[in-house]
Amino acid sequence: MNIKSLLLGSAAALIAVSGARAADAVVVAEPEPAEYVKICDVYGAGYFYIPGTETCLRIGGYIREDIGVGDGGSFDGVNHVTDHQHGDDDSTYWKQTRFTLKTWTGQETELGTLKTYTEYRINFGNSYGDFGDVDGPGGTTNPNRNGAGWQARNKSSALEFAWIQLGGLRVGADESAFDTFIGYAGNVINDTIVPYGNFQTNVIQYYFDAGNGLSAVVSLEEGSGEVGTIDSYVPHVVGGLKYTQGWGAITGVVSYDSNYEEVAGKVRLDVNATNELSLFLMAGYGTDDNLNDHTNNIDALGRGFYKQWGGNWALWGGGTYKFNEKTSFNLQASYDDWKDIGVAANVAYTVVPGLTVTAEVDWQRVGQGAIDNDSVWVAATKKDNVGGLLRFQRDF
User: Fold this and answer.
1) pLDDT by residue for the chain (396 residues), tens digit each?
2) What are phi and psi of 337, to 5 degrees?
3) Which of 252, 246, 307 is CA-nearest to residue 281?
4) Cα separation of 318 and 362, whole Å?
5) Distance linking the first and last C-alpha atoms of the chain
6) Helix count (H) and strand count (E) of the chain?
7) Helices in 231-335 by DSSP H: which ranges?
8) Distance between CA atoms of 266 and 336, rounded to whole angstroms?
9) Of 82, 197, 190, nearest in space to 130 by CA
């Protein structure tokens, strides 16, 4: 065999192998059409259709960082912390980081709109309060005495809301209609220096919108906590009536506490004074004979699930002034029958859409009635409690 024959044979072999590989080449299938999420604009921005259903879903929430200083009785400070090296009493920051996840769903049915809402909160940080070997004002009880609440930790995770609503009927975990229907006490962070009612409860409630600004609610509630949770098949009952117009609103709510057989009510006036200024005034009154009975198996110390303020009556007032689209000033002042006083004021600034920074100053003066009843709010250990709070919040 000469060299020419050898080269011709090798070339033929290479051509044959190449042809075989070409015949065995992998054919890539055409991709299937992608199923994109369809936007749902029926219930507002952020909703999309769950694929294969007629249900619209929105997912959101926020991340928040709170940094507080001052007296524990202002909701802001951490006092009488033992120094690690020398054993002295120090004060330190109150700090709390929160992650909140929210979901909303909506679907139109022959019986009306079917909606759900959930909100789950996870918190890390320490607790505000006075953790030294000290009493409250006038020798009252300090439940934080020698406690470890000043230590940062994974504090809690809580299902705050989880309700189903069809038309006007709502069932599930919610905040009491005694608070939500009439509204919170202003746009300050610490709006319960003089408390206006407890919040978390299971509800069976019906909301009715009569049109022309008139609405009403009836709510059967379980309550929560040792004092608030119902002890029989008889629920707490809340009813409310509201009239809303362009100038503002007039609202009233009344509650029956089935544990202590007491009645409480609140009335509120909201006024949109100008495009920039909105004002509110709210008054509460409640009976409290059984709440003040110290022979009860569970002593409420004068504060029930609904009538949480001291004594029979209380007042809250304040407002919001919007300097521009980014900056607002908020103020709230409160006073009750026990001579408790609360003042909170803040400035909220939207740095960029979705990020708000709020700086607040708070003051609580403990009334003599709270001292006499050993029922000092927020476990304050001083008559005058002052603190400040800085909040960073990213909503999404």
Assistant:
1) 444 454 345 444 434 444 444 445 556 556 555 567 899 999 999 999 999 999 999 999 999 999 999 999 999 999 999 889 988 889 999 999 999 999 999 999 999 999 999 999 999 999 999 999 999 998 999 999 989 999 999 998 999 999 999 999 999 999 999 999 999 999 999 999 999 999 999 999 999 999 999 999 999 999 999 999 999 999 999 999 999 999 999 999 999 999 999 999 999 999 999 999 999 999 999 999 999 999 999 999 999 999 999 999 999 999 999 999 999 999 999 999 999 999 999 999 999 999 999 999 999 999 999 999 999 999 999 999 999 999 999 999
2) -65, -25
3) 252
4) 14
5) 81
6) 4, 20
7) none
8) 13
9) 82
213 contacts 194 by C-beta, under 8 angstroms:
no
Count of other CB atoms within 10 angstroms of residue 341:
17
Contact between 125 and 149 under an 8 Å Cβ cutoff? The reply is no
Rounded CA separation 33/52 (Å):
16
Q: What are phi and psi of 32, to 5 degrees?
A: -75, 150
Report residue 65 CA to chain centroid gap. Answer: 14
Provide the token pair at 83.
């120094």
Beta strand pairing status for 56-70 and 89-109?
antiparallel
- The alpha-carbon radius of gyration of the chain (Å, integer) is 30
Write down the pTM of the prediction: 0.88
Ramachandran region, residue 62 (left: φ > 0; alpha: ψ -120 to 50; beta: rest): beta
Per the CB < 8 A criterion, the answer to whether 257 and 306 are in contact is yes
Q: For residue 340, which of 313, 305, 300 has the smallest C-alpha distance?
A: 313
